[in-house]
């Protein structure tokens, strides 16, 4: 009986009976039960397609079986089977029903979990196991046969439901579904920085032969190496993220330019919070075999995997993964503070870098002054290494501290917002004049709706018991500018940043009774139905201005 692949179209039980009757002798009494069991197993298996990658879904602790038939030949006929686990380790084996015991075969890419069992090692049996494996690596078995035989592949997952891919081919002359790896498939780390790692690897022979349809893709994550793109895709799907249909790691043929394909968040489905399990980034860079990975975190261990991908078949082969730890972030530069000198610090909110200021006390009492110009800032002060103050500041904040001569104070500033923040800082002995004047209870400007007219508005603000100078400025704005103006205002900027035409007036006032330290002004000459932005600046003895909170008022449209 001569078997061929066309016989896959025959009814399953007819094919089974034909193959088994030809391949084996009638069972003896002692082997009848084993024969019936084997026949039952084969009957409930599925046919494995030749020359096509098959996705197999496995349920926990339930074996799944596939089979294929090799026809009889006068010469040895080669075949290969490649199995790719896409998640947890699995167990799989190859069993054969055949007429002859002459069956040379070997496996490739094996490890200590892999073993080959010959027919001669077991007692005579109608079914022999020629290969088995347990693990989550991509494994390829190469076999040769000259006899007609029925093969069965059995797969089992003992951890959880999962899926794998299986590729069988009996035509080894028409090229490879999977791209080829070089003889040395290792990834070399040739450069490590604070936020970058540079990698290189040897070219795949497939790239040199089919440059238009082959490209390299790199996976970067903080957890572990992935042994296949299939495993990476499963990890991303299990996190709950939806993959773009054309970009879901089975790469689109149109992705020929370097690009980041997707990002994996942690198990809490949060892209922003990367603390628990980090993220997975995939970057495809065409046929370049050297790449510098940017935007990494300092002092962090990353795992790198390179895959060579056939864009026409979506099949891929994995290089041997590597890992590297980025360099520690250098200690921030420390700026020396001098008595009475005011400095302004701009903080990078995106990188969350801190800024350090140091001061050595020349008196027992020290006075720190902070004026928040923009954003939100956290202030942390230590004295000789021990924390003495720590809080988020808004507006103006003073810290009066006591210690000993030559005590060393370290001030660390950090932005608590995603955008840049800015703050002014001054330190001085307690008896010096303070950086900022005595301030009222509130820095808000009040407007009186009933006193609005078509060409004037009336505003009021609080003063203090000290005589200070107050200057009023106005500016016409549009409706769509209000939110931006109020949010982006630099609260440290003085009148020097304003146009001369915006100045309304300057005046001095005070009242010893703080309850009556209030002043009002009516600004005239305005346009009807128009929005105006009003600012008040307070100048104390030091001459450094303090800006009140801006106020937007609209004149009446009709009077």
From TrEMBL:
InterPro entries: FN3_dom (IPR003961), FN3_sf (IPR036116), Ig-like_fold (IPR013783), NDNF (IPR019326), NDNF_C (IPR045805), NDNF_Fn(III)_1 (IPR055271), NDNF_N (IPR056225). GO terms for biological process: nervous system development. GO terms for cellular component: extracellular region. Keywords: Glycoprotein, Neurogenesis, Repeat, Secreted, Signal. It comes from the Eukaryota. It holds the Pfam family NDNF_C. PANTHER family: NEURON-DERIVED NEUROTROPHIC FACTOR, PROTEIN NDNF. This is Protein NDNF. It comes from Cephalopterus ornatus (Amazonian umbrellabird). The lineage of its organism: Eukaryota, Metazoa, Chordata, Craniata, Vertebrata.
């Amino acid at each position: 009986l001569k078997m061929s692949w066309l016989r896959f179209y025959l009814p399953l039980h007819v094919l089974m009976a034909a193959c088994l009757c030809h391949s084996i002798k009638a069972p003896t009494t002692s082997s009848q039960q084993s024969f019936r069991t084997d026949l039952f197993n084969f009957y409930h298996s599925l046919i494995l397609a030749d020359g096509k990658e098959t996705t197999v879904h496995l349920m926990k602790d339930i074996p799944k079986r596939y089979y294929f038939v090799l026809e009889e030949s006068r010469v040895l006929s080669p075949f290969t089977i490649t199995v790719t686990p896409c998640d947890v380790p699995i167990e799989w084996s190859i069993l054969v029903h055949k007429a002859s015991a002459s069956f040379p075969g070997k496996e490739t890419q094996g490890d200590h979990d892999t073993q080959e069992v010959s027919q001669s090692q077991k007692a005579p049996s109608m079914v022999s196991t020629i290969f088995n494996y347990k693990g989550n690596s991509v494994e390829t078995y190469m076999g040769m046969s000259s006899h007609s035989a029925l093969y069965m592949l059995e797969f089992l997952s003992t951890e959880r439901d999962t899926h794998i891919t299986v590729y069988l081919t009996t035509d080894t002359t028409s090229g490879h579904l999977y791209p080829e790896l070089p003889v040395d498939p290792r990834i070399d780390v040739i450069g490590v920085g604070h936020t970058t790692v540079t990698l290189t690897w040897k070219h795949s022979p497939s790239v040199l032969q089919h440059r238009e349809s082959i490209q390299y893709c790199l996976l970067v994550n903080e957890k572990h190496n992935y042994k296949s793109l299939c495993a990476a895709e499963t990890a991303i799907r299990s996190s709950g993220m939806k993959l773009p249909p054309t970009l879901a790691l089975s790469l689109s043929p149109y992705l020929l330019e370097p690009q980041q394909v997707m990002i994996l968040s942690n198990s809490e489905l949060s892209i922003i919070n990367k603390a628990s399990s980090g993220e997975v980034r995939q970057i495809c860079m065409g046929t370049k075999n050297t790449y510098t990975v940017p935007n990494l975190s300092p002092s962090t261990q990353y795992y790198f995997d390179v895959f060579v991908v056939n864009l026409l078949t979506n099949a891929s082969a994995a290089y041997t993964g590597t890992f590297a730890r980025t360099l520690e972030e250098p200690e921030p530069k420390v700026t020396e503070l001098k008595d009475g000198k005011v400095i302004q610090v701009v903080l990078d909110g995106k990188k969350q870098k801190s800024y350090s200021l140091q001061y050595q006390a020349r008196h027992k009492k020290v006075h720190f002054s902070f004026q928040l110009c923009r954003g939100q800032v956290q202030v942390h002060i230590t004295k000789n290494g021990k924390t003495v103050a720590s809080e988020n500041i808004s507006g103006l904040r003073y810290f009066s501290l006591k210690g000993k001569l030559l005590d060393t104070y370290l001030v660390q500033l950090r932005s608590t917002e995603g955008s840049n923040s800015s703050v002014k800082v001054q330190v001085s002995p307690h008896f010096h004049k303070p950086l900022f004047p005595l301030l009222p209870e509130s820095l808000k400007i009040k407007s009186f709706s009933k006193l609005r007219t078509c060409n004037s508005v009336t505003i009021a603000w609080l003063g203090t018991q000290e005589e200070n100078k107050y200057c009023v400025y106005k500016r016409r704005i549009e409706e769509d500018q209000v939110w931006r103006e109020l949010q982006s205002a630099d609260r440290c900027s003085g009148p020097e940043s304003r146009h001369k035409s915006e100045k309304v007036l300057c005046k001095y006032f005070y009242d010893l009774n703080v309850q009556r330290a209030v002043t009002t002004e009516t600004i005239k000459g305005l346009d009807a139905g128009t929005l105006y932005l009003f600012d008040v600046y307070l100048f104390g003895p030091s001459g450094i201005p303090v800006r009140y909170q801006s106020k937007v008022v609209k004149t009446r449209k009709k009077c």
